[in-house]
Structures are given as C-alpha cells and as structure tokens.
Amino acid sequence: MSKRSRRAASAPGAGAEAGAERPRVTVCRGCCCGTPKIPGLDHAAQLRDLRQAVAGAATVRVTDCLDACERANVIVIQPSAAGRKAGGRPVWLGLVNDPDATVDIAAWVASGGPGVTEPPGILDVYAFSPSRRVRAELDE
Predict the structure, then answer these.
(1) C-beta separation of 128 from 71 below 8 A
(2) pLDDT at 9 over 80
(3) Which of 10, 15, 50, 70 ranks highest by number of CB atoms within 10 Å?
(4) CA 92, 109, 128 angle in degrees (round to 5)?
(5) Could you give the CA distance from residue 102 to residue 82 in angstroms, rounded to a whole number?
C-alpha cells in the first residue's frame, strides 16, 4: 500500500464508504475521456447534465483516468450503503458517448442505483468488467 493509500484509508470518511448513504458516480475525464479524442459529444454538458439530474440523490465526482481508455467515455456507478447491503456492486459503463445514455444513467441513479433498482436494459450495451487492478484503484 502506498503512503497516499494509507493516508486516504485512515482519513475520516475516506475510501469506498465515503458518501455511502448515496450512490457515487465517477466520471472519467483523463487522457481520452472527456477530450476531443471522443468527437461529437459536448463533454462539459454531459457532466453538467449528469450532476443536475442526480443532484441530492448521488455524489458525482470526476477522476483523471480510470485506465479503460479503449472504452472512453467511462462512468462508474457505485452503490449506496443500502444498495451494497442488497447485493449491489459497482457498475462500469463504457462508450457513454450518447446524450440519451447519460439520461438513462441519471434516471437509474436518481431512483437508487445498483442494488436498489434495476438499470434500464439499454445500459447493458455499455456495461463492462475492468481488470481487478483498475477496480481496486477506484476504491482508493
């Protein structure tokens, strides 16, 4: 474990349980996601619309890179404490380059997200499983 990881893990409210009372939405905005490398999408509007649509229902954060560049734009939905208790696990969504997909994600998260409500079937098109290393880094 790095020094950074130890400090983060020991900080009050740090780690996977921070903000656990609500789902957490992590939006990648690194080297590929949210950049002109993914044309035809207003990336700033995508983030703004997502934040507005889930305001009060979820925490939205931006991260530099989730190391799944081949699936840019990547969004990860982490369950609330209640969702995790009900069996919900983080859901990784890639190629989220359509405003309609953002609307579907926001509606699902606002209604409870993983473990609380079933996602719209269309989100199956975007779902993928990242490597164990990448998943672990998100929880740091």
Answers:
(1) yes
(2) no
(3) 50
(4) 15
(5) 23
